[in-house]
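Follow-up to my post from last week.
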Amino acid sequence: MSSCSTPKKLWDFHGGIHPEQNKLQSTMEPSARARMPAKLILPLHQHIGAAAEPIVEVGERVFKGQKIASADGYVSASVHAPTSGKVIDIAEYPIPHPSGLNALSIVIETDGHDEWIEYRPEQDYTETNPSRLRNIIREAGIVGLGGAGFPSFIKLNPGSQKKIKTLILNGVECEPYITCDDMLMREDPQSIIAGALIMRHALQAEESVIAIEDNKPEAYESVCKAAEGIDGLRVVLVPTRYPQGSEKQLIQVITGKEVPSNGLALSIGVVCHNVSTAAAIYRAIHLGQPLVSRLITITGAAVKRPRNLEVLFGTPIEELLQQCDVASDQIERLVMGGPMMGFALHDTSLPVIKTTNCIIAATHKELGLEQPVMPCIRCGACADVCPVKLLPQQLYWHSRAKEFDKAQEYDLFDCIECGCCSYVCPSNIPLVQFYRFAKGAIWTQEQELKKSDQARERHEFRQMRIEREKREREAKRAKKRAPRAKRTATAKAPSVDGAKMAEKMRDEAMSQRDSAVDARKAEIQAAVARVQAKKKSAAPKTEKAAPITPAPSDVPAKSDVDKKNDSPAASDNHEQVQ
Amino acid sequence: MLTSILALSALALVFGLILGFAAIRFKIEGDPLVEQIDAQLPQTQCGQCGFPGCRPYAEAIAAEEAEINQCPPGGEATIHALADLLDLEPLPLNPDNGAESAKTVAFIDEQTCIGCTLCIQACPVDAILGAAKQMHTIIESECTGCDLCLPPCPVDCIEMIEIKKDMLTWKWPYPQKPVPDSRPEASV
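User reply:
Got it. Predicted complex:
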């Protein structure tokens, strides 16, 4: 029994749109391998999470599949050399990103041999424990190839408690123009199925579903044929609608469950992966090959031979445009990704990265006249198409006015930025741009608040510490003062007036011992004696040393001691500060 | 007549007791307004406002001894937040206190540093690590970019570096194409 014939109920999601498909152009001919470029530019940040750390040096020879940058932290992905060659530079290069910023990249000069590093396939994945499988997938640098680029191994970890009910393989590819998943499903369904089985094993999922939109009948046929006879694997044809390929919407269509706001699909026992990711996982486990290339759709009205190419990461876009006969002078806008969620590129020398699924070279005619932006007329068309059932209009007002707390009250962060609202807006308001701006501004504010709280805490702690140190110093000084007062006085007295004083002291000591009263009384006596001695000794000293020493005053012993005591204390103080 | 007087007096007594109890039980320690103002300030502790730190400035604002436009690191955003909080008109940043500039962090040229510890004593948030006659370094994540470590350095080995935007800190800008309001603003 074919797994395709199994009928099963499908659910629905709110809103959605039916934009012009424009998929036919790029599926006219089979996919091919792109020519090897002379130079590959590999940004170290091709995924969600932290950038990878380079582990090769300039001048080093690398083989195809050799790890050249290592994942830095948990949410990160390694980068591998897409072909053999020499590392010629590790520096900042422009990257394909809406910011147009530069980022650290490794540049490899290809040698044309395409020589693989020695790799070892896993003998039998069903014998391998899921944790090891995840590790291999992590080492292979595999990220979600649907466009987001989230490290795949994280989404293959069900956690200790959670039981995964459904694994969904996303072959929906709902965005116009893009056909790379379509072609992969048509041409290489075996890899996808094999990858799906590995994922199922890693997740210990109960059932697996491959979802394909009904505008891809060839892909559906092909996958069905490959999936025949496999238990617990269904291939489902879903009615075409944008943005069905969005994870949350697809989960809703397949399982009828809604992913909670601020929650993960995992929390409702569902995991969703792209079909291309499945194929990449198959290659990593069965062949031992890391992720070094992918299928990319090169299309748009300026492309004379639109098609899908298997491209090594780091290949400059201009090389691909050349291979598809692009009329460069006709390109009005170069877009990476789809027309709904992609972003414009300003340079054809930018490299393709792991998340690049499509390049559209659009002509002026294709884009149509740029419509002027007009005021919102509160028609509510945006709310009708919003797949998350938000109120785009309210979000727009508040984001525009920078009233971020109010925008958050309207669940700004549940927006998936699909662009349906902007698409239907009769006033051509770039709604999603406002939401993106507001989200970014809120994140920045939160970060700044965190930083200022941290600074406040540190500042207050510092003040407390300075205060405490001051108190401690004072306490120390007071403690020092008491015994030293005694010592200095006793030590000083004999030195000033030799024998007489010594006698006196001896007498005192004798009397102390003789009387053997309590220590307190003796101390008082001693103190009195000392003061007397001091007074006596001060008198002869004045006569003798009047010209040199400063005029003696009737200073009580204590203040003298204080002065002596103060200077070391002060120097102590100084040292401490230093 | 008498009953009503008695009843009212009894009520007055009861409510008086409740209020008296509440006044003691729910007494608020300190000035909550100062806390609220302080929470809006950027906590750079730079002293550009003319007060020795953010909290003293917050206290001065609460006591109406200072204007809300004296904080250059906070800039316009802070002024607006304070204006909202205190129900005042937002003022432009006072140029006497300095201008709003890009966020920076201090960087110590470790080759030149002589280990004098003067900057460590100046740093309001303990973001400099080092000891006497040992090289010092900035803990970048803690540095508020207040510039207070610059003047005490006898060898001028500290410089302020602008924080570079990278892919992780980059955020979408405000949409460039202005959307017209539903009607033109009325002229005054």
